[in-house]
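Two folds, back to back.
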Amino acid sequence: MTEKNIPDAASAENPLQTQDNEAVIAATRHWLTRAVIGLNLCPFAKAVHVKDQIRYVVSAARDMEGALLDLERELQWLSQADPQAVDTTLLIVPEALLDFHEYNDALFFAERMLKQLQLEGELQIASFHPDYQFEGTDPDDAENFTNRSPYPILHLLREASIDRAVEAFPEAETIYERNEALMRKMGVAGYHEWMAQPAEDEDGANDNVIDDDEVGKAGK
């Protein structure tokens, strides 16, 4: 199965850049299948992955302004796209927003952009970053790894899809607590050990969802 891998415009004329983008997407897909799906951090992610409804976009931006311009384009694109073809977009920013504080500043402007584009209530932006840190935690606390990704990512979701997923998963409010507990049980070393292994099927449904016994083994 081939997902929707969208390089930036310049890379279409640059084979080396295209190759780099493919590596970025491959690393992101591994994180999605091994961490997000494999650890069941998001119970809703597997369905759109299996249905080939994820759009991967690699931004060529090297600063916040460029990243926000790409975000604006992708928000408008997703709002007009057929939900059955593309349900969600991962905007990957490998060359910008590497500082987590700058990334948080960009999120502030991203939320303001949603309002300016009159897409608030239709689309939502979720955040992932290599140095993600929840308020009140230390940088090395295991629970931060629930939102750590290989590169800065702006995840664009449809509100309607979120509503349907929550209806199908009545205890959605417990996901956050479950994920934190899982990460603390695995530990940072256990998480890295888990991620160093390949997903069972990088191109389709990942059926290697971790169980409690595996959590214990990974955390040792």
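---
second:
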Amino acid sequence: MPISGTPSRSELIQHLTATRIAGEVATPRENNLSHYRKLANGDRHYWLGLELGDRWSDEQDVLAVMAERAGVNDDPGHRYGQDTIDPELTVAALERMAGRLRKAADSRQRVLLATGHPGGLLDVHRATAAALRAAGCEIVVIPDGLTTDEGYVMQFADVAVLEHGATLWHTHSGEPMKAILTALEREGRPLPDLVVADHGWAGYAGQHGVDSVGYADCNDPALFIAESEGTVQVVVPLDDHVVSPRYYDPMTAYLLAEAGLDAE
């Protein structure tokens, strides 16, 4: 690890850039633009559990949001090669997320954590859950026996995930979060006060009216659109699967420290 413990703001920005969590990220420009186009063309796989209607049918409008909120290159003529996430935007979003976590801790709210990207972000969510629990929050336990067309909806280390073939599954779908919230309502249990997630888990929660904050890569524009519309409260731009999940540790430490929460 380039740094350990809780970094300063400037140290975190340097770390994000050095590990390519932000800065010049691995996601190529052509992949970003392809996803923006597919979202604009109505491909619901790229809507991440949200209902966007016909409001975002222009690819250039999607690019403008991504330039503003994630820091990708705003030149529509830049079609191939390197693209970027602005680390300043990443840290600013972490600070906004920290404010929402602080509110949850102060009010001892019910919080549900979930990830569609367990290979990268599982431990970020696990550490956040542990810190919130230590602060007196209730970490929502999901109902048993939930499934979607992709697999089983389970909870691992306090984080809801999709399991398929004895493997934690990467998914963009909002269906796992829909299964959880529907089951909670069916059982007469209260919905979470806050969802901390990514991909369709965060998108569907926000669409369902639950406070939702989360993480998104620069090729996943739907959550940034939802943030711009107020459906999702905070979205942190980052590469959501870098070489080592340990690279996210300083970011998590910074987030929890900004929220006034004790890390493990």
